[in-house]
């Protein structure tokens, strides 16, 4: 049946070479998604493009992986959906974003899913796909935060990058290198010490040197 504009079938064009349900389709989708995400990033990758590359119907991608964000999580082999953390951050008042981000992330790292995340980070350090890691941090984890703090005069990109660098440092010190006393400190102690810095990065004053303006001549 031919789809019409606005109908549920508009994202399911008939195409030759489709192989819904065939053995290997799931692996083909993952391979196509990994290539697309690595090359184009999260924002510029669509379910339709991944399906086309894999030779399947877009509906099959949704069947196996759900949303684009969940597909990305499967590609980077996240042991827990990032939506669990992001939904808590979305609901936080603006003046509590720093604490909420740190509390939510530490909760995941210290949970049974933590070892899987550490393993993923170790694989990236050992020569994994850095472009995927960068896309995940900037376009999935921090983009929704950036949109909340952006103003007409500050797009928030430096601010969320600073938050990302701080969180990566905490993960490295607490879970990878095991620097004491950070490795064994209660999460609440780290939240008390670090959350105000994250909040300043997000909504406080950040002094940067003035940029040189190009010579009009």
Automatic annotation (TrEMBL):
- Where are the stretches annotated Disordered? 1-25
Q: Matching InterPro entries, A to Z?
A: Homeodomain-like_sf, HTH-type_TetR-like_transc_reg, HTH_TetR, Tet_transcr_reg_TetR-rel_C_sf, TetR_C_16
Protein name as annotated? TetR family transcriptional regulator
Task: Tell me what organism the protein belongs to.
Answer: Nocardia suismassiliense
Q: Which residues bind DNA?
A: 46-65
Domain HTH tetR-type, which positions?
23-83
What keyword terms does UniProt attach to this protein? DNA-binding
The record's annotation in PANTHER family points to:
HTH-TYPE TRANSCRIPTIONAL REGULATOR RUTR (PTHR30055), TRANSCRIPTIONAL REGULATORY PROTEIN (PTHR30055:SF235)
Q: Which Pfam families match?
A: TetR_C_16, TetR_N
